[in-house]
Design goal:
The chain is α/β, with parallel strands linked by helices. It has helices spanning about 10-15, 35-45, 60-65, 135-140, 160-170, 195-200, 220-225, 250-260, 280-285, 305-310, 330-335, and strands at about 20-25, 50, 75-80, 105-110, 125, 150-155, 175-180, 210-215, 235-240, 265-270, 295, 320, 345, 365-370, 375-380, 385-390, 390-395, 410-415. The chain is built from 11 helices and 18 strands. The two termini are about 35 Å apart.
Length: about 425
């Protein structure tokens, strides 16, 4: 956390520096920012190529954007004033990004396109997660982004928006689709197996896909495996917005994806009970040849599934699991089978009150931290509510030894204690 002690630092920087290339105070709580100082930096530092600011009112940055002629990346800004007044669409015309800009991120509360459309064809990176754009806005903008390589959006893009990306953004390498509050309000504002299949067939250079979907099918995962041969990082989360899912379990789709995407080194699959059988876990173990990081949620049926997975994954270094059916004994056995494993975190499994069966995976320099099931009281809308917190395991290699700052709820397990 950066402590705000006034804007003198920025003023001194503006007065005494002419060689600054990057200025970044994005996502900070610095309030004492004088726009004249930023404008002076833009004037004096002709090599300034990257500027990331906090939620400064975008109209106060017009002078900065005019003078930062070499700017290639801009991040932050707010299209809502500090008094909460949204920028009128007509006023967007006054916001003009420099001609060399190829990366735009943040753009908080932007609800119109006039400021961004003139630079759309030059953009290589675009983050729209904090905007207020509609599905139609996304479609209109992304049709023009023919050089786009990195895209980060919310689910409001919808399957229709992903189809536009697939048809027009052929250079896309990284795609992130995060959940947003608006999904479910408009049938267009959801991403499903349809959008995933479309993007896989249209964007053959994809190396990274992280997507939250309301529906999924084996065919969609098979399509990713067939077309995305350069994929190195794949993460899929199945949301609980829709009760009926097109196609579960996903065993066949997972094996096709893993066999087709041989360059994969990071793999995440967060489903719901019944989403993947023990056979599917065995496929993950067998075909995750180069995977070093893995996240699994609500997968498998019995303890045997984890053991089948642990027979493979020869390069796996980090494993995170939630909502699984495995016992402590099976988890310990799996850890011993995974020879390259350096870190494991598990939340929600068939835990015991003491975690003592986890001691079976003890080894030199291996720390085991166990949090037993707890009843947690939370304050929500001024009302107290209590609920169970499932048991949790964290185990990792450390040359520094056991930690000494653990809270009382965390038990440090050791064969010598």
């Amino acid at each position: 956390m950066i402590k705000d002690e006034g804007g003198e630092w920025l003023h001194e920087l503006a007065l005494r520096n002419s060689s600054l290339e990057v200025l970044n105070f994005y996502e900070t709580l610095l309030d004492n920012i004088n726009m004249r100082d930023i404008e002076l930096i833009a004037t004096n530092c002709r090599a300034l190529s990257s500027l990331r600011v906090n939620e400064c009112y975008i109209l106060d940055l017009i002078g900065v954007l005019e003078k930062a002629t070499e700017l290639e990346e801009f991040g932050g800004g707010s299209f809502v004033s500090s008094e909460g007044h949204a920028l009128e669409i007509d006023a967007y015309q006054g916001v003009k990004f420099p001609s060399k800009v190829t990366s735009l991120i943040g753009l908080n509360f932007m609800s119109g396109l006039p400021a961004i459309l003139p630079r759309a064809c030059n953009l290589k990176k675009l983050d729209l997660q904090f905007t207020l754009l509609s599905t139609e806005n996304h479609c209109e903008l992304l049709r023009l982004c023919t050089n786009l390589e990195v895209l980060e959006v919310r689910n409001v893009i919808g399957d229709r928006g992903l189809a536009v990306v697939a048809n027009h953004c052929k250079k896309l390498r990284r795609l992130r689709v995060e959940p947003g509050e608006e999904e479910g309000e408009d049938e267009q504002s959801v991403v499903s197996h349809i959008g995933l299949s479309t993007i896989a067939q249209g964007c053959l250079n994809l190396e990274f896909i992280a997507v939250y979907v309301t529906d999924i099918s084996n065919l969609a995962l098979e399509t990713v495996g067939e077309y995305c041969k350069n994929l190195k990082d794949f993460r899929l989360v199945l949301l609980d917005k829709q009760e009926q899912i097109t196609d579960l379990p996903l065993d066949n789709g997972v094996v096709a994806l893993l066999r087709g995407c041989s360059k994969l080194n990071r793999f995440g699959l967060y489903l719901r009970p019944g989403g993947l059988t023990d056979r599917g876990l065995g496929y993950i173990g067998k075909y995750s040849t180069n995977v070093r990081w893995m996240l699994l949620g609500f997968v498998g049926e019995h303890e045997q599934g984890l053991l089948e997975l642990s027979k493979g994954c020869s390069k796996l270094e980090r494993l995170e699991m939630r909502g699984c059916f495995f016992t402590e004994s099976e988890i310990a056995e799996a850890v011993l089978n995974l020879k390259s494993l350096k870190y494991i975190w598990v939340q929600g499994y068939k835990g015991t009150a003491t975690g003592e069966k986890l001691l079976a995976m003890s080894r030199p320099f291996w720390n085991i931290e166990f949090t037993p099931p707890l009843m947690v009281t939370e304050l929500d809308d001024m009302e107290e509510s209590s609920g169970p917190q499932p048991a949790q395991i964290l185990a990792y290699y450390s040359l520094a030894g056991r930690r000494t700052d653990n809270p009382e709820s965390v038990i440090l397990l050791s064969p010598h204690s």
